[in-house]
Amino acid sequence: MKKINWGIIGCGNVTELKSGPAFNKVEHSKLVAVMRRNEFLAQDYAKRHNVPKFYTDGLDLISDTEVNAVYVATPPDSHASYAIEVMKAGKPVYVEKPMAKNYAECREMIRVSEETGMPLFVAYYRRTLPAFLKVKEIIDTHVIGKPLSVHVKLHKAFGEQDRFQNKQHWHVNPAIGGGGHFYDLASHQFDFLDFVFGAIINVSGIARNIAGYYQAEDTVSAVFNFGSGVVGTGSWCFVVDKQSEEDSIEIVGMNGKIKFPCFDKGDVELITQNGTERFSFQNPENISFFLIKQVVETLRGENECVSTMYSAARTSYVMEEIVKSYYKK
């Protein structure tokens, strides 16, 4: 493909700054159409972002002959259906994370991709951000020696948008998101750890709804280990008080450790017998820019994207294994 003409299905908040503008900033890439079910909002987005065409039906966008690649940025419950329609139409697809509502849908998306030959990418952009690449470089160059363990902690305060049943965000509706905030946020953490250490081969977890604000799990603990030998623990809670918030990933090796946030702004800390060294990084204005650039280059035969449907499906499998006892109730 010489020129990648993108269409976006679901031009909501995530596309305003994180991803949408990047499609016009990457060389050989252009955003030519957007879709949202609300006609006023679709037209408004197109006008503000200088997009030539807008639609209220995803199938109409997919069938647009000018569109030769599609970004699916809807909630997870429609990722699989839209992605499959795109691939069956003979067009590559880039899907928001998590890859789908559940692992079974991920497997079906992979099957269709392999059957049609159409590429499928997933928006795990931390694999391309400078701070996270620095962490991988420290590990790969054995600065902390042989990696032993990784410990993930994400504790966040209860959000007002989750308070009232009739106004709750889809992030706490398992029928739409597959799970709660854990699915939305921990997916980034597990995908990055997959990037660093390879696939998780054993995982178990406990998920509970303790506060009772919504149907989804609000507190999760997990233990896991990678095929590379590294063992891990994780703790997630989305109903703590503001003073108890914490966002950290700590990787311990035989000769030191690395500590860094996954979501909050902060330095990468390298702690060895020589003391503590801090590395600061600036993300691009559109945080998905580097990954979208990789996707475009891959479609043009110039690169190989680091976020694949196979790695993304592994992350969905891990999260599903952690919370499965809760949803079997």
Task: Write structural notes for this entry.
- The protein is an alpha/beta fold and 329 residues long.
- The chain has two domains: 4-124 and 287-304, NAD(P)-binding Rossmann-like Domain (Rossmann fold); 130-282, 2-Layer Sandwich (Dihydrodipicolinate Reductase, domain 2), CATH 3.30.360.
- 33% of the residues lie in helices and 26% in strands.
- The chain has eleven helices and 14 strands.
- The chain has helices spanning 13-16, 22-25, 39-48, 58-63, 79-88, 103-116, 130-140, 174-177, 181-197, 289-299, 309-327; strands at residues 4-9, 29-35, 53-55, 69-72, 93-95, 120-122, 147-157, 200-208, 219-226, 231-240, 246-253, 256-260, 268-272, 275-279.
- It has an eight-stranded mixed sheet with strand order 8-9-10-7-11-12-13-14. A six-stranded parallel sheet has the order 3-2-1-4-5-6, with helices on both faces.
- A hairpin with a 7-residue loop joins strand 12 and strand 13 (268-272).
- Helix 9 crosses helix 11.
- The chain is globular and about 60 Å long.
- The mean pLDDT is 96.
